[in-house]
Design brief:
The protein is mainly alpha-helical and about 350 residues long. About 70% of the residues lie in helices and about 0% in strands.
Length: about 350
């Protein structure tokens, strides 16, 4: 989707240098707390894993001595008790960890609200809280890969450590970012109630939804994703796809509000086009690019995108007309447009 704006400017006045300094201080204080919460639970799993392996090893080592005594039954019972205790405590600690992460988010918000004396109903304060949440969520991007680093003499294992770190902690980092971005959306929703016709408020809310939807986007679309990094398969699940569609549709609704108030703004149509692209709604995407070209007929980059979409949807005649128009305008990438010719047929064959 469109690149979200971490900071909203224009409809409120704020000393951004001071704001960033203070928010960075709070982040530097809360981020280690979140790491500590996450890593502490690994010690719990490691303790029980070591205990169970030690018990099984001892049982196998002394099996010949135990087979004719009642201690064999006792040893087996002790192993099953350890396993049972692990699963019971695991449920408890998982619930506790979620609560601790929520508490860490609340402490972050409380500290941010304190330095600008937050008051309900003051637009600048709602926007400041929303921006602080987006800033922290952006700071956590890729954090799940960096929680464990190998010593310098084991740099060759860096990718393995990254994968292990992600496998163990991606859900925790995802949850924290989800909490922060949902709070950002909630702050803008509160602000909309106070200023329901302020277009910049709706634009900020739409961007907040865009940033939230990025949490659920397919891995190849995730901004800044590195191809050689391990991606959790859950991120390609139907649950994530459903969440992505839901949040992207919310963003589209906000952009439609903006379009109703400012139908001649190319930026709004561009945001709608990006959103429709991510939702795989090519006809609507084409409509938005056509609207942009009516407003900006010399926008050759948009014309190129429209031509590619025509070819992808099988409208080859329209695509070729766009190609001719780009060639007449001496557009450098005009010949690349023909690479999309026949893509509609390929999609039918693969289907």
């Amino acid at each position: 989707m469109a690149s979200p704006k971490v900071e909203s400017e224009g409809f409120f006045q704020l000393d951004h240098v001071f704001f960033n300094e203070q928010v960075n201080k709070v982040i530097s204080h809360v981020e280690p707390q979140i790491e500590k919460i996450i890593k502490r639970h690994i010690l719990f799993h490691a303790f029980f894993l070591f205990s169970i392996l030690a018990e099984i090893t001892l049982l196998i080592s002394f099996f010949a001595f135990l087979i004719n005594s009642s201690f064999l039954a006792f040893s087996l019972a002790f192993i099953f008790l350890t396993v049972f205790t692990y699963f019971i405590l695991k449920l408890y600690f998982q619930t506790k960890k979620r609560e601790q992460l929520t508490d860490a988010k609340d402490r972050y918000l409380k500290a941010c609200k304190k330095f600008f004396n937050y008051k309900e109903g003051v637009p600048e304060h709602h926007v400041s809280v929303a921006n602080a949440c987006c800033k922290f969520a952006a700071k956590l991007e890729g954090k799940e890969y960096t929680l464990y680093r190998p010593p310098s003499f084991l740099n060759s294992l860096a990718s393995s450590f990254e994968r292990l770190s992600c496998q163990l902690h991606w859900e925790d980092i995802h949850r924290v970012k989800e909490l922060l971005l949902n709070t950002s959306v909630e702050e803008y929703l509160r602000l909309v109630r106070f200023e329901p016709t302020n277009l910049e408020v709706h634009a900020a809310l739409a961007n907040a939804y865009v940033m939230l939807s990025g949490l659920y986007a397919q891995s190849k679309e995730t901004e800044g994703a590195t191809e050689d990094r391990w991606i959790p398969p859950q991120k390609s699940s139907e649950v994530f796809a459903h969440q992505f569609r839901k949040t992207a549709e919310r963003a589209i609704e906000e952009f439609k509000i903006l379009n109703d108030y400012a139908p001649n703004d190319p930026w709004i149509h561009a945001q709608l086009a990006y959103s429709y692209h991510d939702l795989r709604m090519p006809e609507e995407e084409i409509r938005e690019y056509e609207a942009i070209l009516k407003l900006c007929p010399h926008d050759l980059d948009t014309l190129f995108k429209l031509g590619a979409l025509y070819f992808q949807q099988g409208a080859n005649a329209q695509g070729l007309r766009v190609y001719e128009q780009l060639k007449k305008s001496h557009y450098k990438k005009a010949d690349y447009l023909l690479e999309h010719y026949g893509s509609y047929h390929k999609s039918l064959v693969s289907f």
